[in-house]
């Protein structure tokens, strides 16, 4: 047995309260190295009853290229648990793994009560809680300046005719909040139940990530009365609304930064930023010299986005009041937090407490593109934008050199990093305002586009569609991914497909979120998996091989892109089957 591969960490994603009286426990072992794993558990104060001589078999859950993960859910009559693990290898050797190490499976090592892992008490206040509604939600991301121009009277000077060209960084086309309100019927018919809006606050750019005033809607988008109407009308249709908060940095046009520019170290806002010397300055230099010509910290090397000092209590209170304001006054349902990994953890803990005091069911989503355990312990975010998870999906579907096993290794690795509560509400997306659009990445192949989105919608997590993807909008990297929504020139067949896909996701949201998962890689590029929950099982087959695949029929097909005969499916390349077994 590979002893070095055995791993467990108490009070983490390896041992946590899932529900009030239910604790979920994981153990890592080397791939295919262990025959049997069992949990040994009981109450610390009843150790004399020798419960350590009993075992509960653990099931093998997710697997990666190098590890197996064993899982079990347990309860305790006394809301506390001491536990250890029994392991048996394929040669019949037996081991006892506890808080003090790995020993032979012998009573002399098991009867030391101080050696066990512990959950000392099931504190409900410490349990990670995600909003119950999120796993049922299908999101739609809108870049407001490019979705729809509902009121040309508020267009900025120099606004271009709608969709008249591919966007450059400084272009304006006139999209606004009235344009979104005008299309709520469209979104409702599509089946959307959550709107994620890129920033709407006052800022000089088209993207609004250089905020000037967090308490006002940008006048080129409308005003706060119009935003209240948008939220109310969305809610009346069963659609939640999430706003984008840029708390890592301010725009250089903000009065706080301009006061620093004018008054230097005497400014009352001087400690609101990370300034190395006074006066503040930025000197244009070649790209190779970025970072050497600014004497204050910024987002990336963007001089008009000075970084906020969120360790300053004045900055903290300023931002926390803003976060609470949009909840109290407009009843928003979520905050998406821009550049969340560059803001200190102390601030996010304060943020978590403040916003959930205002609205306990608010969704807190961090923009983090890498492993995010530190932010997902239950006292900061509920979820992150799950780029690392969906990047594995994109690699398999878009890159012929990536096998199904490669994809599953990457996806399962990401799932193991977090508690199930987070995985159930992680924000799954394939394209966004920061990435090339999927139709462009698929090189215009709409069969491939349909296949990859179907696969993503069948995964644990809450799925998101970037505006226009559902009607065939293409686009390369930023700023090309921010093209105008092609009203009047939409792919109606693709739109109908997305309506059906969203309906499928909403119908089986519980199965897809909570169901037991079983994967099979039939061939390098043919994937089959099942999800089972409360008597319902979905069997899903995806063919990304170069030739047709003939697969047996085991249930009733409910969503397909293939040919069906009485006994078999003939699945073309980029074809798929979802059947109810």
TrEMBL record:
Keywords: Glycosidase, Hydrolase. Residues 141-505 form the Glycosyl hydrolase family 13 catalytic domain. InterPro entries: GH, GH13_cat_dom, Glyco_hydro_13_lg-like_dom, Ig-like_fold, O16G_dom_2. SMART domains: Aamy. Transmembrane segments: none annotated. This is Cyclomaltodextrinase/maltogenic alpha-amylase/neopullulanase. It comes from Candidatus Enterococcus ferrettii.
